[in-house]
Amino acid sequence: MIDTSPVKWHLAHTSWFFETFVLAAHSPNYRPFQPEFRTLFNSYYNTVGPQPLRTERGLLTRPALADVQAYRRRVDAQMLSLLETAQELAAALLDVIELGIHHEQQHQELILTDVKHLFSRNPLRPSYRPSAPSPAENSKPLTWHAHAEGLQRVGHTGADFAFDNEKPNHRVFLHAFELTSRLVTNEEYLAFMDDQGYQRPELWLSDGWNAVQRYGWRAPLYWEQDAGCWQLFTLSGPRTWRGSEPVCHVSYYEADAFARWARARLPREAEWELAAQQQTVRGNFCEAGFLHPVPVSSESNGGPAQLFGDVWEWTQSPYLPYPGYAPPAGALGEYNGKFMCNQIVLRGGSCATPASHIRATYRNFFFPEARWQFSGIRLARDL
Amino acid sequence: MIDTSPVKWHLAHTSWFFETFVLAAHSPNYRPFQPEFRTLFNSYYNTVGPQPLRTERGLLTRPALADVQAYRRRVDAQMLSLLETAQELAAALLDVIELGIHHEQQHQELILTDVKHLFSRNPLRPSYRPSAPSPAENSKPLTWHAHAEGLQRVGHTGADFAFDNEKPNHRVFLHAFELTSRLVTNEEYLAFMDDQGYQRPELWLSDGWNAVQRYGWRAPLYWEQDAGCWQLFTLSGPRTWRGSEPVCHVSYYEADAFARWARARLPREAEWELAAQQQTVRGNFCEAGFLHPVPVSSESNGGPAQLFGDVWEWTQSPYLPYPGYAPPAGALGEYNGKFMCNQIVLRGGSCATPASHIRATYRNFFFPEARWQFSGIRLARDL
Amino acid sequence: MIDTSPVKWHLAHTSWFFETFVLAAHSPNYRPFQPEFRTLFNSYYNTVGPQPLRTERGLLTRPALADVQAYRRRVDAQMLSLLETAQELAAALLDVIELGIHHEQQHQELILTDVKHLFSRNPLRPSYRPSAPSPAENSKPLTWHAHAEGLQRVGHTGADFAFDNEKPNHRVFLHAFELTSRLVTNEEYLAFMDDQGYQRPELWLSDGWNAVQRYGWRAPLYWEQDAGCWQLFTLSGPRTWRGSEPVCHVSYYEADAFARWARARLPREAEWELAAQQQTVRGNFCEAGFLHPVPVSSESNGGPAQLFGDVWEWTQSPYLPYPGYAPPAGALGEYNGKFMCNQIVLRGGSCATPASHIRATYRNFFFPEARWQFSGIRLARDL
Amino acid sequence: MIDTSPVKWHLAHTSWFFETFVLAAHSPNYRPFQPEFRTLFNSYYNTVGPQPLRTERGLLTRPALADVQAYRRRVDAQMLSLLETAQELAAALLDVIELGIHHEQQHQELILTDVKHLFSRNPLRPSYRPSAPSPAENSKPLTWHAHAEGLQRVGHTGADFAFDNEKPNHRVFLHAFELTSRLVTNEEYLAFMDDQGYQRPELWLSDGWNAVQRYGWRAPLYWEQDAGCWQLFTLSGPRTWRGSEPVCHVSYYEADAFARWARARLPREAEWELAAQQQTVRGNFCEAGFLHPVPVSSESNGGPAQLFGDVWEWTQSPYLPYPGYAPPAGALGEYNGKFMCNQIVLRGGSCATPASHIRATYRNFFFPEARWQFSGIRLARDL
Fold it and tell me: What pTM does this model have?
């Protein structure tokens, strides 16, 4: 699957990031661990140089895992030495180090989603690790939280870390809208399927309907029928399907079709952010030992629940630069800016996202066909 | 080329539109010209029924052109009879008739662009018809027109015809910006090419750079090198390249890369519309006998020139529903709404657009790779 | 369909053959009808020059049919003038003229098979022309004709016309074998289908089984189910299926699987030719007004019937040069020799082959997946 | 690359062969090591059951290498126990065991060629192991060995092991021919390249010329230009190019084009076998520590040299069943028979073939585009 990479590659690439953008950038005399790695583990930075084809990452039986681990140890040690001199370091370099840490967090999540996909294709149905016992089923009725129209501010502000694509903080006019109190559940999604959701073109965007035909979609990714019952393939192997869990592993097209069927729509990213500004970021489930989103438990502060850390929520907003956005100069300008086309923004973080990586202004983005992330659905409506 | 259709198909499909949505809808006893045509000339209306594969339109050697012309005559005659009773017709039916006329205008333009593409691939290099003598070269310096920030209204209002996607009229907050006084010219685009524009990945969106590699783009579509000089393939056959004409037949990716190279950006569609609201719609060049955009001639009312009827201007806005948008019920709901994903809005009308078809609120849309329309570039900047 | 070409192209290409290889070759001052045609209607002669992509033949809306007809008239007239001086012409040129006539006969057959394919894809289900009334159903029992082992001679000999690939006449050792007395019928093929022939991999070559999956083959080409009954699409439009007609429009893979199911095999081409040497070539059905193979009628001289003019019979022989084969020098060496790889020999001529074009040594050849020719099955067995 | 498999897969598949066809077939109570392996490591035996897609073999990160090694140890131990009772075993079972050993030898060679391909794509340019010191350059002049025409016998005879496709021994009439005294060298192949061999369509089969364009072939696989000089990628990493070594890693198309350029042809497989019958099989170079073909050293018995164990020699013979061939009943009938279409026979064994696996009647077969095997060229001519 073209979107996924081997774990070994993720391990090497995140150290490559520190080696390339911190160690080599800081010291003109830096001697690389192995010069070929500069090319080998470059993901997409044309400014740094050529990259192996993405489809060939799976063919790299060399360097062996032990060599990659040695590479990581060496880079880590050099980074620690450097950090001991942190008070002497330029602010710009410290910024890159911070970026590298957030970059590594992104790849921690990708390792989980990529392993899940890989294991799902393996006839042995492997388990990554046992899951914590799931919380009880819990079916909260769906309610709506209203917001009046008005000129609002969104985007990152303050001194904390944020990616360039979350800035600048800016004004946007929002019409009156409302958001659902929780995520769409498996049970609700099954009702869409039972109502011929995947067979009725009038529910779908044109490109979505084409994708349904081309890929033969009939259910979310990882839903499997076993003797007439649905089960899910999870990071703990195959598991019973549970109705009150948030539906996940749906594409944008499926989220959009579900919303149309439900006589609603997906939120705009600014609407989502406005609601999220009023909520406390909660620890995600990965730390709690869950490797899967769980049923809604508590009201969040009177506002919508499950905004953070369950599933990435598809918005209806294409991924675009904010007004006044400018990518940083140099290679790191390629981090986010060049992807601002053809992708859709998702918000909120998933059960595989490190807790400290989640915030209300965070903008994730994937192509509308992508299903291998923990991606789910929250509904919105005009008022 | 998958985006284009044979002229015979366009002729039949536009009559099909009237037969299906007006004649057959109005009279329960309507006897179709040929029942198979209901399927054969359906473009994409799933609600009406199945459609032949788009790629097979070119294989329809039957019905012959004479049969299609007879079909058109019969449908036209029936429409004229119906219109003689117009005062008795329901308002909804009159709306569909009006829509059918605008639909036919869209296909008039597509016939020109599709024939141009077809002829360009023919080694005989045919000419569709001779062009009117071109106006003199005319190189106006580029200047900028500023707009202050503010809450603005865009979208169609009033009783005149507009497509559903131009409504509702709604508020949007715009930051301060400025637009260029005229379109980007061939000469300016050549400077981008001479500055290695097609060889420098840092100027391109990631998907754009991939398209450059995949298709081997090195110049706009229809630019051809002949003994070291550029010439253009036009609807009048091959022709000398002229520097002060607006550049056209560029993709969104090329427009975006050019803008980045020029240290500017493409306009948002609301910015463009705001500027266009203050300009009079001018007759396009098709009626004047030109089949190609011509150099800028006069200032338009103190604002930006060439907003209407030269080339479709790529905006940076993905094609999305306006706040509060709802497609009409039934098959005609498929006209626009289901395409609101993965495409980019273009504004202004081209030299192939019928004059009466152009207006400030008009939203055209194509995929970012499309180059066979008369599509060009206007620049914007933040203030 | 990549294997087929428009009728207009066939008409132009066959005149192109005479213009290029006779008129232009004979007279150094020859002034071509239109110089671009030299490239435009070149099928595959690299020695002559570049060719338009085969897939683009369908895009040539220019030259119009009337222009192609004018081209044919002019070339025909020039050829007639030349032929009036035939006694002065070099033997080599006369040979090329004869080749050009046989070349045109090949395209006469291709026009029929290509039109059949094109019409079959047209939802209007057009008819090329009405068929002659079919002969009565006639179910002769299948018997076997034996041949003893021995060193035999095959390949063309004598002064009559033959393609280079039929020469030289040469010796080949054949083990004892037998051939069936007639072609496999629709009824017999249906028994294979009813016995799960398309569902049992053990009956298929590996590449054949892959083709079954890839294309979803479940019956021969042009077999269609209508309310539970099979009908055939023919050059006279859809028609009732008849059990005693020879099965046709099967690929090599289907012919081979049928033979394996029938505990037999396909003939080697030398075996087929040995049997055919003893039979009189019969006029094919095209001249009789049939556009479809008909049930077997009479014994042919005590040997196998239906050897000539019903369907092209798949052999098990890959298309290879005969021992001692040498292609002619120059462009005409590309006529046959360069295709001697990956294709399979068929023998006997079909109901669409001109009668004077059929002979016992004739070697037709197609890729094993091809089904759009009138291709059928005769069985062989080792003794 | 679709033709190659991971080493881990080869290791498991060869044990799977013994488990499936010997252990499980012999004992109805056999308890498999892991039941899923029956599916997981099935290569192409439809009779045994479904198989994972070939393209997915590289995704099997589970079972881990250690698990595969445990699987091999267990199967090996069970096979040893069984063999201790060999005198009690049915002859048919002993035949399958012998087949399994030859099957494993085939995969020993494939491991080397697949690793070579994998390493060649790795930017680190790994070496599998150091090569033995190469013998001296040695340029023997090319001479020809003639054979008179006659009815000959080819195919395996006697009690030794042979695959089903080498049988039955049968008669074939061969016209007079001659074979070259040694293989074509790098130097000779370079002369073809220098004479524009890859640029002249008249030297190529039509499908070969298409392959040249599609893949951009300009030299054999693993030839690389470094500062204007050719070097080879080998199992010992990149290495200097040497003129007198046999050329290898060419496709059938390249071998055929070279032969045409050299005014010769490739041998028929019966011609090759006739010459080889008179030569002693020599140990191949793999055992001698070479991982690459080496220059010709000595005359072989007065006949052609280098027939065995240097490179697989492309013949001009498509891979077909011998007259009277019948595959064995059951799943093992799929071993060879179903591949007898679209592939070409190669003879002689390569430097990666185990010595005991080589014999004069051995028929290897690959698609004409294949280049990753050690495949080279010997020429033939009609007399």
Answer: 0.93
D53 touches chain A (CB under 8 A): no
Instruction: Please give, rounded to a whole number of angstroms, the shortest distance from the CA of A308 to a CA of chain B.
Output: 26
pLDDT for D298 equals 66
| Residue C144 bridge partners (DSSP) | C180
- Which structure tokens are listed for B295? 């150099």
State whether B205 and A340 contact (CB < 8 Å): yes
If asked whether residues D77 and D171 sit together in one domain, one would say: no
Q: Is B126 on the interface with C (CB under 8 A)?
A: yes
The neighbouring-strand residues paired with D240 are D231
The answer for D 141-200 residues in CB contact with C (under 8 A) is 151, 170-173, 175
Residue with tokens 């965007």: A205
- Give the model's confidence band at B131: pLDDT under 50 very low, under 70 low, under 90 confident, else very high: confident
Q: Which residue in A151, A201, A205 is closest to B341 by CB distance?
A: A205
Q: Is residue D128 part of a domain?
A: no
The Cα-based distances of D212 to C43, C336, C337, D252 in angstroms read: 19, 20, 18, 12
Shared domain for A264 and A161, answered yes or no, is yes
Does A39 sit within 8 Å of D123, measured CB to CB?
Answer: yes
Task: With beta carbons under 8 A apart, name residues in chain C contacting D212.
Answer: none
* Domain C-terminal end among A85, A120, A155: A120
**Residue B132 placed within a domain:** no
Taking only the tens place, the pLDDT of each residue in D44-73 is 999 999 888 888 888 889 999 999 999 999
State whether C66 and C207 are in the same domain. Answer: no
Q: Are residues B29 and B169 in the same domain?
A: no
* Number of domain units in chain D: 2
* A216 and A354 housed in the same domain: yes
What tokens does B291 get? 């089949």
CB within 8 A of C16, min separation 6: which ones?
Answer: C37, C38, C41, C42
D214 touching chain C per CB within 8 A: no
D-chain residue closest to A55, CA distance: D1
pLDDT tens for B58-83 read: 888 999 999 999 999 999 999 999 99
Do the Cβ atoms of D122 and A61 come within 8 Å? yes
Q: Quick one: D100 and D188 in the same domain?
A: no
Three-state DSSP class for residue B147: strand
Residue located via tokens 């198909």: B9
- Domain of C104 in residue numbering reads as 7-120
Q: Is residue D132 part of a domain?
A: no
What is the tens place of the pLDDT at every residue in C284-302? 666 677 788 989 886 566 7
The crossing angle, in degrees rounded to 10, of helices B252-261 and B206-215 is 120
User: Shortest CA distance to B297 belongs to which of B288, B285, B306, B309?
Assistant: B306
Q: Concatenated DSSP letters for D264-314?
A: -BPPPHHHHHHHHTTSPPPP-TTTTT-SS-----S-BTTB-S--SSB-EEE
Q: How many CB atoms sit inside 10 A of residue D228's CB?
A: 5
Q: Are residue C99 and residue C151 in the same domain, yes or no?
A: no
D161-171 pLDDT tens trace: 999 999 999 99
Q: Could you tell me the two tokens for C167? A: 């020469």
Q: Nearest Cα to A205, choosing from B156, B5, B53, B46?
A: B46
Scanning every residue of chain A, which has its alpha carbon at the shortest distance from the alpha carbon of B199?
Answer: A46
pLDDT tens-digit readout, C9-58: 999 999 999 999 999 999 889 999 999 999 999 999 999 998 888 888 88
ipTM value > 0.90? yes
Determine the Cα–Cα distance for residues B364 and B375; give it in Å rounded to an integer. 11
Asked whether residue B258 is domain-assigned, the answer is yes
Give the span between the Cα atoms of C2 and D367, in whole angstroms. 22
pLDDT in tens, A357-383: 999 999 999 999 999 999 999 999 999
Confirm or reject contact between C382 and chain D (CB < 8 A): yes
Tell how far CA B236 is from the center of its chain.
20
**Residue D346 φ then ψ, to 5°:** -120, 150
| A57 and A174, same domain (yes or no) | no
Q: Least CA distance to B175: which residue of chain A?
A: A323
In this structure, what CATH number is given to the domain that contains residue D267? Answer: 3.90.1580.10
